[in-house]
Amino acid sequence: MNDAAAENPDRLPIVDLQNFAFDEAGADRIAAELDEIFRTIGFCYIANTGVAPELVDGIFEASRRFHAMPAEAKNAIAINEFHRGYMAPKTSVIVTSSVAKVTKPNNSESFMLMHEVAPDDPEWGKPLQGPNQWPADLPGFREAVTAYNGALETMSRRFTHLIARALGLDPAGLDSYFEKPTTYLRMLHYPSQPDAAPDEFGSAPHTDYGYITVLLQDGVGGLEVRRKDGNWLRATPVPGTFVVNVGDMLSRWTNGRWQSTPHRVKNVSSVDRYSVPFFFDPAMSNTIACLPTCIEPGESPRFEPVLYGDYVMERLNKNYQYRHAATG
């Protein structure tokens, strides 16, 4: 792949993770492939991840069942101060977007699950350290969501070993940052909007805040990724794959070597769209500073060290209506 093709692809590349954990040479090859992709487009599909197909089917079924519930049942678990629960349509505006001046709320609704925190944990009650919420009278929902969430966390930890290799580190070189990771599982429902105005989106142009995002999307489509030439590339669903992208925090960690790429969603189809992004981030207490392997000779870090917890709370406080009342 030449530089021009890498920067301006006709489609997102597919990376096959088959057996990478058992093949040293194969893991190095995949890591080198990821480094090239993340330097340029910042997005790819990943195949053969080890996530069981029945878990994928289960999370889609759970999402459809949840979003089919009456509004009053969903609002009974409206998102709490710990960022867990139901987000009604048009309650978030991505004002921190570095891509566009966003003034209209996202036309989507979602259920948000985060990492479990035990009431006797010393972190309990701190920002993003509180109880998850579950809908009543939805048999099997919690079990399906919990099983999928666990599989995605396991896969993300394995993928982090590839990321470490790609950045010139020992495969376990980033593990200490994810001993108690901050995770978000968001079950999104995008209604059909074929006649939407140019500035109306299911998810307005933005970059993700954190480390990596692992996205499961149905067959409807609607995700678009901005290439370096400014044109938007359709991330057409590929059966049996996930979409993975670099977030702002990982881009900072690599001194900008890897790209946190703008993306957006508009469901112009005639049917509803469902997707399930899983965000895998460091612990709230971790300070993120440029990795030594990502500084070229004579180069200085482009970003000051930042506490992940401070960084993410600033963005949540600005982008979500429910937090405006809490923060004044």
Automatic annotation (TrEMBL):
Pfam family, one: DIOX_N
Pathway the protein takes part in: Alkene biosynthesis; ethylene biosynthesis via 2-oxoglutarate
Keywords assigned: Ethylene biosynthesis, Iron, Metal-binding, Oxidoreductase
Domain Fe2OG dioxygenase: 181-282
EC number of the protein: 1.13.12.19, 1.14.20.7
GO BP annotations, alphabetical order: ethylene biosynthetic process
Keyword Cytoplasm: no
Molecular function terms from GO: 2-oxoglutarate oxygenase/decarboxylase (ethylene-forming) activity; metal ion binding
Reaction equations catalysed: L-arginine + 2-oxoglutarate + O2 = guanidine + L-glutamate 5-semialdehyde + succinate + CO2; 2-oxoglutarate + O2 + 2 H(+) = ethene + 3 CO2 + H2O
Cofactor(s) named in the record: Fe(2+)
Similarity remark: Belongs to the iron/ascorbate-dependent oxidoreductase family.
Name of the protein in question: 2-oxoglutarate-dependent ethylene/succinate-forming enzyme
Annotated organism of origin: Pseudoxanthobacter soli DSM 19599
Lineage: Bacteria, Pseudomonadati, Pseudomonadota, Alphaproteobacteria, Hyphomicrobiales
